[in-house]
Design brief:
Elements lengths: L2 H14 L1 E4 L5 H20 L8 E4 L2 E5 L6 H6 L3 H10 L4 E9 L9 E4 L1 H5 L6 E7 L10 E4 L10 E6 L2 E5 L10 E2 L8 E5 L4 E3 L10 E8 L6 H23 L1
Antiparallel strand pairs: 1-11, 2-3, 3-4, 4-13, 5-12, 6-11, 6-13, 7-10, 7-12, 8-9
Helix pairs in contact: 1-4
């Protein structure tokens, strides 16, 4: 990839908290990945390899899976030279894989994701970490595409409260304060990706369209960016409580 293109992506990322890479994955590979994805999901569900916290449903359809690191296509893309070259310019220090997820958001019933920052969930000590959000379907503001508050990553880590939303258990406590930032909703074609900083505030609306909006994410961090044990302990405590409450509510 041309160094001038890398510089532009880096500038956008640091200035806005995200940057878009068009055509990161070819259409042919996207089609192959989607076909293999159905097999991977069937295998995970059939073999009961997912904990209840790792998979969420809406109307008996999968809305999100938070443990996709073992998928063969995740491993392939983690070695993609083009992607690694880009990410290595966005994160200071040696890169480390930090997991992968699937956000299926099925047609008509896909769940919204409340406003949040990824690093509230990750509990890392700084923001040398990012998400690579790859569109497996078209994604836009009509089918629940991700939206961002430009430059909000410069605020640092904000206060969150429990959301009780399956798949996104925390939300920004004071969302009205974000009105000073421009809201941006990218339109992505299959194979496009948006790379966002772990501090940028983002979310998505419910998918009420007739089209699914499947997004697949890879996460990277600086190897020396460690987990804050106290924050992690508190987050896990809150998550366990929420899962218990969701199960209790489902039985009522």
């Amino acid at each position: 990839m041309d160094i001038e293109v890398i510089k532009k992506l880096k500038k956008d990322y640091h200035e806005n908290g995200y940057t878009i890479v068009r055509g990161l994955v070819s259409k042919a590979h996207i089609n192959d990945a989607k076909e293999d994805l159905n097999k991977e999901i069937s295998k995970l569900v059939k073999n009961k390899k997912l904990r209840s916290r790792d998979i969420n449903y809406t109307n008996d359809q999968i809305n999100s899976i938070h443990s996709m690191s073992g998928w063969s296509w995740t491993k392939k893309l983690q070695k993609n030279k083009k992607l690694i070259k880009i990410v290595s310019h966005l994160i200071k220090g040696k890169l480390e894989n930090y997991g992968a997820e699937l956000f299926a958001k099925p047609a008509n019933v896909g769940l919204p994701a409340p406003l949040h920052q990824d690093n509230y969930f990750w509990c890392l000590k700084n923001n040398e970490a990012l998400t690579v959000w790859i569109a497996l379907d078209k994604a836009n503001d009509k089918n629940g595409g991700v939206f961002y508050f430009q430059k909000s990553h410069k605020l640092g880590l904000l206060e969150h409260v429990q959301s009780f939303a399956p798949g996104t258990s925390q939300k920004i406590k004071y969302p009205d304060g974000l009105n000073i930032f421009k809201k941006y909703s990218p339109s992505l074609n299959p194979g496009d990706c948006i790379i966002h900083n772990s501090y940028v505030v983002h979310g998505s609306d419910k998918n009420i369209s007739n089209s699914p909006r499947v997004g697949w994410t890879l996460r990277f961090k600086a190897k020396d960016n460690k987990i804050d044990p106290m924050r992690k302990k508190q987050y896990e405590k809150e998550l366990v409580f929420q899962i218990k409450m969701r199960k209790k509510s489902a039985r009522i």
